[in-house]
Amino acid sequence: MSNSRRTFAIISHPDAGKTTLTEKLLLQGGAIHLAGEVKARGQARRARSDWMKIEQQRGISVTSSVMTFEKTAPDGSTITFNLLDTPGHEDFSEDTYRTLTAVDSAIMVIDAAKGIEPQTRKLFEVCRLRSVPIITFINKVDREGRACFDLLDEVADKLALDVCPMSWPVGMGGLFEGILDIATGKVSRPEGGSKEFLGKVDENVTLPEDVGEELELAQAGYPEFDLEAYRSGDLTPVYFGSALKNFGVAELIDAIAKYAPPPRPQPTEAGPVEPENKEVSGFIFKVQANMDPMHRDRIAFMRLVSGTFKRGMKLTPSGLGKPIAIHSPILFFAQDREIADSAEPGDIIGIPNHGTLRVGDTLSEKNQIRFTGLPNFAPEILRRVALKDPTKTKQLRKALDDLSEEGVIQVFYPEIGSQWIVGVVGQLQLDVLISRLQAEYKVEAMLEASPFDTARWIRGSDQALRDFAEFNKMNLAKDRDGDPVFMAKSAWDVGYQQERNPDLTFSATKER
Ligand code: G4P
User: Which CATH number is 281-364's, of 2.30.30.30, 3.50.50.60, 3.40.50.300, 2.70.150.10?
Assistant: First the structure.
């Protein structure tokens, strides 16, 4: 039943509390039993591969994963939540962007003392591009933060979004007394000296006078909750809480269950595919290679779009043409990887493979549809790769192909010369590249300055491309798929060529 699925991600600036909130969501869903397990598990996993040391050193999360938990709604139905973890560090925006293509909604976590921070904003813009509906969680109200009105107005102004407060903190920081549900007027209070929330709901409270006044102002000053406006991405309901102390988290889960959209139709060139469609289809939004260094396996993460997937089913990847049987699909439950027998639209399936599946591929039973909207982004940093040992050219080519397929880097093979160029969206990806080349492919490489500053995919008729190539061979390269790329010395260069070649398009993204 696809309408029992909620597939979502948490977007936030580092330190706003995403990890803590994830832990608490999983705890409430009964998926993990000890707070801190998300981090602990992460560390055990990281220890398994050398390149992941970078994560540890920098205290960031490089790998994404999928966490599934269930909760019974008040009406007795069971809702399955698929939480897709997005790497928080800004250098990993490309991977994060791709993950956001696989969700139906997002939770935006904001630190009550800091408001909207740069990374929150960037991720929000990606959600807006695809009209992904957003529930806002203003975190850390157990500490002194900014005034609620200030925070609400900032969300509204900076993100050009209607805001609708759904709850209200009674006091903040040391004066924090509980959280008021605006619709019912009930206050959830922490109990006992520890102030850990124990679920006590007080129905007969007399609010302090200033809170009562604030509430009146809030109700008068902001629009009422409107499900349609939320689902079309024009309005965000706002919840206040503390992930650390577990205040407001249950309300947040209820809100996702109640308001967040079930699996949405996904676009193809021939129109959207509805989840109710019987034919099984999905798309790959992430590939992770070498999860286990002893095996050269890869896991491709597929978001199921339509149909009921059954283990052993044959699906045809758009890039391949011949069907593959999926015998050991993996569902990523928080405690463990589990073998999936069946999955519904909105679910994520891990498909082990040896490199046949790539980010952006559509998988389907009849091989007649192609999902659109999974872009590659033009790299902002380009480097030339130089080998310390020139006899390792073959290994390097294999490694660059693999890693570009996984989305860690993009690779460009110039038409002239033998110096391969890698492109990344953030600096940190370069460190990951060097470290993984060494650890997984035994290739020692250095990165040197590149003569180019940016890259654009070029499209046009064969004739127009040939004419362009005649004069610009020095600036032409092929990407991993063999598609032509213009390597530009500057943004100005791009504009200049675009003007001179109106028959060609120079694109900063490439949709596969
Ligand atoms: P992130 O994944 O978004 O980067 O944030 P994370 O959950 O790691 O939280 C960042 C810091 O903020 C952590 O403190 C965490 O304990 C704290 N924090 C998260 N939610 C709340 C909250 O509701 N209230 C308060 N007061 N603090 C919160 P840290 O000291 O950096 O890490 P740790 O030593 O606690 O692990």
Answer: 3.40.50.300
Q: What is the pLDDT of residues 172-195, one digit of tens each?
A: 777 888 888 898 888 887 754 334
**Which residue in 318, 317, 285, 326 sits closest to 302, CA to CA?**
285
Contacts of residue 363, defined as CB under 8 A and 6 or more positions apart, other chains included, come to: 281, 282, 283, 284, 302, 315, 316, 317, 318, 357
Query: Considering only 10-19, 200-209, 456-465, 498-507, which range has the smallest mean pLDDT?
Result: 200-209
Domain ranges of the chain: 2-259, 281-364, 375-511
Q: Which residue has the higher pLDDT, 356 or 140?
A: 140
Ligand 1 centre to CA of 143 (Å) is 12
Q: How confident is the model at residue 383 (pLDDT cuts 50, 70, 90)?
A: very high
In this structure, the residue with its CA closest to atom 28 of ligand 1 is 244
Question: Which residue, among 60, 256, 257, 252, has the nearest Cα to 138 in the 3D structure?
Answer: 252
Question: 335: phi > 0 → left, psi -120 to 50 → alpha, else beta; which?
Answer: alpha
The CATH architecture annotation of domain 375-511 reads 2-Layer Sandwich (3.30)
Q: Tens of pLDDT along 196-232?
A: 444 455 555 566 777 788 888 888 899 999 999 999 9
Cβ-count burial of 468 within 10 angstroms (0-12 exposed, 13-18 middle, 19+ buried)? buried
pLDDT for 397 equals 92
For the Cβ of 173 lying below 6 angstroms from any atom of ligand 1, the answer is no
Q: Is position 505 annotated in a ligand binding site?
A: no
What is the pTM for the complete model shown? 0.77
For residue 17, say whether it is annotated as part of any ligand binding site.
yes
- In 262-414, where does DSSP find H-type helix? 393-406
Top-tier CATH class for 2-259: alpha beta
**Which of 476, 135, 437 lies closest to 289 in space, CA to CA?**
437
